[in-house]
Amino acid sequence: MNRLKELRLERELTLKYMELGTGIKRSTYSDYENGKSEPKLATWEILADYFNVTPQYLVGWVDE
């Protein structure tokens, strides 16, 4: 499971809630979670800020 999905599920957030909280469409976010597409750098930063983690953590470059 990728970190985007892991963080969303840990926080018990729905895709609809993610859309409301980040402005990223549900279908797009689902594609990110399922590896069908990759976020752009600006999107990684939005998601990292939303989850209060670093973009490097989300991408999987670091474990903390």
From TrEMBL:
Coiled coil location: none
Keywords: DNA-binding
Taxonomy, superkingdom: Bacteria
This protein's record includes keyword Zinc: no
Keyword tRNA-binding: no
HTH cro/C1-type domain span: 4-58
One Pfam family cited in the UniProt record for this chain: HTH_3
GO MF terms held by the record: DNA binding
Positions of transmembrane segments: none
CDD domains found in the cross-reference section: HTH_XRE
Protein name from the UniProt record: DNA-binding helix-turn-helix protein
InterPro entries: Cro/C1-type_HTH (IPR001387), Lambda_DNA-bd_dom_sf (IPR010982)
Organism per entry: Leuconostoc mesenteroides subsp. cremoris ATCC 19254
